[in-house]
Known about the structure:
The complex is a heterotrimer of chains A (265), B (270) and C (269). Chain A is of the alpha/beta class. Chain A is built from nine helices and ten strands. Chain A folds into two domains: 1-80 and 164-179 and 197-265, P-loop containing nucleotide triphosphate hydrolases (Rossmann fold), CATH 3.40.50; 91-163, no CATH class. Chain A has helices at 41-48, 71-79, 96-101, 110-115, 120-133, 148-161, 178-194, 206-212, 235-242, and strands spanning 2-9, 18-25, 30-34, 56-61, 64-65, 81-84, 166-170, 199-202, 215-220, 223-228. A six-stranded mixed beta sheet of chain A has the order 6-7-8-3-9-10, with helices on both faces. Chain A is globular. Chain B has 270 residues and is mainly alpha-helical. Chain B has a domain at 83-269: MetI-like fold, CATH 1.10.3720. Chain B has helices at 23-43, 48-52, 54-65, 73-104, 112-127, 130-141, 145-169, 173-181, 186-220, 228-237, 241-269. Chain C is mostly helical. The mean pLDDT of chain C is 88. Helices cover 83% and strands 0% of the residues of chain C. In chain C, helix 4 packs antiparallel against helix 5 (111-126), helix 4 (71-103) packs across helix 10 (227-236) and helix 10 runs antiparallel to helix 11 (240-268). Classes of the chains: A alpha/beta (265), B mainly alpha (270), C mainly alpha (269). Chains B and C meet through helix 1, helix 3, helix 4, helix 5 and helix 6 of B and helix 2, helix 3, helix 4, helix 5 and helix 6 of C. Chain A: Its main location: membrane.
Amino acid sequence: MLEITNLVKRYGHDEAVLKGLDLKVEGNSVVSIVGASGAGKSTMLRCINRLVEPTSGSIKLNGNELVNLKGAELRRARRKIGMVFQGFNLLDRLTVMENVLAGRLGYVNLYQAISRRYPQDDIERAFVLMERVGIAHYANKRADELSGGERQRVGVVRALMQEPEVLLADEPTASLDPRTSEQIMILLQSLASELSLPVLINIHNVAQAKTYTERIVGLRHGKMIFDGLPADFNKDALDAIYGGIEAPDDAITEPPVEERSHDFV
Amino acid sequence: MTSSDAPSTAPRTWRKPPFIANPLLRYGLIIVAAVYLVWAFGSLPFNWARISEGLPRAARIFSGGFPPNLERYELLLTGFKESFQIAILATLLGVFLSIPFAVMAARNIAPMPIYIIGRAVIIVSRSFHPVIVAILFVAAVGFGPLAGILTLTLYSIGFVGKLLAEEIEEIDWGQVEAMKAAGAGYVAILFYAVFPQILPRQVGLSMYQLDSNLRASAVVGIVGAGGIGGTLMNAFGRYDYDFAFAILLIIIAVILLSEGVSGWVRKKIW
Amino acid sequence: MVDHAQQLADRIWQRYDRKQRLIRYAVLLATLMVVVWAVRDIDIFWPWVWDAPNQISGLGARMWPPSAEGLNGIIAALIETVHIATLATFLTIFLALPVAYIAAQNTTPNRACLWLGRFILVSSRSVNTIIWALLFVAIFGPGVLAGILAIVFRSIGFIGKLMGEAIEEIDRRPVEAMEATGASKAKVIAYAIVPQVMPAFFAIVILRWDINIRESTVLGLVGAGGIGVILQGAIDTFAWPTVATIMIAIIVLVLIGEAVTSLLRSKVL
C-alpha cells in the first residue's frame, strides 16, 4: 500500500509545484494521474522514489516512511519501487538483456554488475518476463535497434525485474504511436493483476486513462481536484483539470495530440 | 512472480556477448597487447641507477624553485617581447602564404601535378614538430628570432593551409560556374568566386593560429630559435631553478590569457 | 549577377554601421601598428634575412643525397619512439580518467574536487611536452623514462579535458533510470556513464596516440629518448646526409601513424 500525506514540493523560492497532496493506493489497483503539463504529475511520481526531494510531507510504502531515507537505506527502498519512463531511459549501447538485468542492480554486488555475471535466478526471471511481453528473442540485440514499443517493453521488464511493490509509470505512452501505446497500457493493466502490483500511471491521454485504469486522479496546479472512477470522470471534471489550458472538446473520445506547456503566472 | 514460476525446462543461461565475437581474434589481440607491453618495457633502455637518484633531485629542484624569483624580470620581458614578435610576424606570413598553398592543395581547383606539390608541402610541414624544423633553421640561418619566424611560418602554412584547402574543396560550386559562364579567367574566378567564400574563416583561423604560434614560440626557443624558450632553457642550464619556475608560471599565465582572448575574438567574429 | 552582387553589397554595408566601421578600421590600424613595431623592433640582423634563402638551399644541398648509413640505428630509434608514445598513452589512460571524472560537473564528488581536477588539467595542458621533458630530464636524467613521463604529463590534460567534456555531455536519462533501480553510485557509473562515453574514449585515445608519435620525435632534442637523440647527434656532427635520412624516416613514421589511426578508427568506431 502506498500512502502519500500532505506532500509539498517547492523548487527554490518559486511557487510550490505540489501543494499538499494526499493519495492512497491499495492492492493491485491501476491508478492514472491526469493533468496538464506543469500540473505536478511528474514531480509527484519522482518524489515517491526520491529522484526529486520532497519539501515536506510523508510517503509510506507498505508502512515504511520513504521521505527521510538516506544512502544505502534509500537504495534499498528504491529497489521496491519500479519506474517506467516516457523516454524509456534505456542504456542504448547495451544489449536488451543487460538493460533488463540492470533492474537487479540494487540486489547484486559490484563485481556481478560489472562482469554481468548475474545469479541464475535473475537470468531465468529475465527470460520469463521478456517472454511474457514478447521480447525474449531480442536478448542479445542492442537496445537502440528496437522499435519504440519494444523499447518501452524493455523498460517495463527492467522495472519488474526489481520485484517491485509498486510500479510508477511516467507518461509511458507519450513517445509512442496510438496503437503501440494502447498495447503498452493493456500490458501494464494485465501485469498489475498478474503480479498483484499497484501501478501509478501519469498520462495525459484521458481516453486511455478511462479505458485502461480503474481510478483517475486529476491534478491542477499541484492540487488534487478529482479522484474517482473513470465512469465518473465527465466533461465537468475534464474542464476543471484542463479548462483554459488546452481544448478539451474531443479529449474524451480522442487522445490529445500534443501537450502544451503551461506556465504558472 | 518469483523464480518458482519458471517453466520446468533446463535453466537457461546468458552471458554477455563478447566485444569481439571471434574468440581466436579476441584472445589473439589480448596476447599481442600483453606481449607488446612486455617487449616495449623490456627493450627500452632505462638507466635505473640514475633514475633512483630522481626523488632527491626532484626535491632539490623544487626547493630551489620556490619561491619563484622575478629579480631578473628584464630578461623575462625581453624574452616575452621576442616571442610575441615571432608569433605575430609568423602568423601574418603564414596566414598569407597558406592561401596559395591551399589553392594548390585543393583538388577541385588545382590541376593534378600542382595538387601533388601543394599536398606534399602541407603534409611535410605538418609531419614535423616545430622544434625539429626550428633546429634545422637554426643550423641554416643561425641562432635568433629569424629561425623562429621561419619555423612558425612553415608550421602555420601546414595547419592553416590544410584547413583552408578543405574549405576550398567544399565551396559552393555554383558561384564558380557563374563566373565561368561569364567568361572569367582562372585568376578572376579565384578572386571573385573562391576567396570571398573562404576569407571570413581565414580571419578566425588567424586568431587561432596566433594563439597556437604563441604557444609554439615558447618552445622553439629551447633549440635556439629566439623568444622566451631560450631564456627558460638558459635558466634551466644554469640550475637557476627559481628563475626558471618564475618563467614557467608566467608562460602558463600568458598562454591561458591568450587562449581566452583568442576564443573571445573568434566568438565575436563568427 | 551584378544586380545581385550590388544588393548583397548594400546589405553588407547596412550591417556595418558607422560605429562598427570605425571599430574595423581601428582594429586594422592597430594590427598594422603592431606589425610595424614588431618588424622594426625585433632583434634580427637584416642582411642575414636576405641571405637566408641561400643558406637554406645550401643546407638542403649538403643534405642531398640522404645517406643510408646508420639506417639500422635509425630504425631502432624509430621503434623506441613508437614505444615511448604507446607506453605513455597507455599509462595516461589510468591517470587521466580519474581526473576527468572529478573534473566533470555532473560526476564530481564536490566543488573542491572539481577545482582540483580543473587545476590538474590546466597545468598539464599549459606546459608543452618539451618543457615537461626538460623538467623530467633534470630530475631523472636523460633517457626514455623522462620522455615517457613528459608525454604522460602533457597527455593527461588532453585526454582528461576531452573525456570530462564527454562525461558532461552524456544523456542524463539512463542515469536517472539506474538511480531509480536502487543502484549504488559505482554501478550507475558502470552502467549509465561508461557505455555512453566509450566511443568518445576510443576516439580521444587514438587521436592522442597519433599526436604523441609526433611529440615523441622531439623529446630526444632535450635528451629524453627516441629518434630526436640521434637527430641531435647527427646535427652536432654536421652529418647532413644522415639528418636527411632521419627526416625522411620521421615523415614515414608520422604517415604510418596516421594510417594506423585511421584504420583503428574505422575498425573500432
